[in-house]
Every structure is written in C-alpha cells, then in structure tokens.
Fold each of these.
Amino acid sequence: MALIRTTLRIEQNLKKEAEKMALEQGLTLQYIFNEALRNAVTQKKPTTKKTDVIFYDKAIVGMPENLTRDDFYENPQ
C-alpha cells in the first residue's frame, strides 16, 4: 500500500484529541487518521428505497371560487 503526502486543515481540538489518543495507545498520529478515514469511507450507508409519490388531482365540479376560511369554519381563530 503506497502512502502519499497531503495537507489537511482540521479543527485544532480534534487534532489534540487524536494526538492524545495516539499517545495513550502507543500509535502514530498517521495511523489514527488513516484508521478514522478508512472507517469513514468504508462504513455502510443505510440504503433508502426510492419511492415515487404520485399526486392525483381531481377537479371539484361546481366548487365556488375564492373561498375563504369563513366559508369552511363558523368561528375562525
């Protein structure tokens, strides 16, 4: 497996936590970041089934135009 150099900008507190973890576990910072990135990119994403939503529109014959809330409710609030 070939390694390459790259530059990333990460949150300062995140780097400090990673350095602390590496020190506590006797690992390198490189290993910590590689593992975290590997886990992130190989993590299975939940599959979502695409569902088409169909709206049916039916004209109401004889419906008066420009109805207001008062036409439907006795005491509008």
Note: The first helix runs from residue 12 to 25.
Amino acid sequence: MDKLKKILLIFAGFICVAIGTIGVVMPLVPTTPFLLLAALCFAKGSERFHAWFTGLPLYKKHLEGFATTRSMTIKTKLAILIPVTVMLFIIGLLSGSLHLRIFITFLLTIKYIYFIFGIKTTK
C-alpha cells in the first residue's frame, strides 16, 4: 500500500506540474498553487522526482523564493489572488445558494488574511 501511495503522489505531482505549466501561458489558470502542490507531492512521493522538480526553471522562477524565504513579491501574490477571487466571485454570483455564497466569502476572507499577514511581502 505504501508503494501505491507513492506512485499516486508522483502521478499527482506530474498532473500539478502540467496544470501549473499551462497556467504560465493562460491568465486564468493559477500557476503557483499547482506548483506548490506538485512540490508537496514529489517531496512525499520520491526524493528523486523532488530533486528533479526543484531543479526545473519553472520551479526556480515561481517557487524557489517562497520555498527558501517564505515570502512573495506583491506581483506573485496578486497573480495568485486575483484569478481565484474572480473565479470564486463569478461562482458566487451565478449560484443561487446562500450557503455557497457564505462559504465563498469565508474562504476568500481566510485566503486574504493569510496572504496579507501570513506571507511576508518582498520587493
């Protein structure tokens, strides 16, 4: 079972890398969250794939600073926050469910609090 779990984590890591790579060229697809998830999957699944992933230019450009200093530039923060906020806002507008709207509002509030106070901003 442990081997199956590692294989699934590696597979999920590659899926996240693919989606993150698509996000580099498509404005509404967020890059950084998928690359963070890929890094987590590879770290838990395989040291070899984790070393490969952390050597990629994609990782170095979008995540290395965050991974080493736990900080992001304002541009990176906005690149993560704006597309997700827009998508959730549209879902909330199109939804007739009050419970879903409350949940989305709560989710966005927590996310903004975390990005403003939990992640240091660098220049």
Note: The first strand starts at residue 71 and ends at 73.
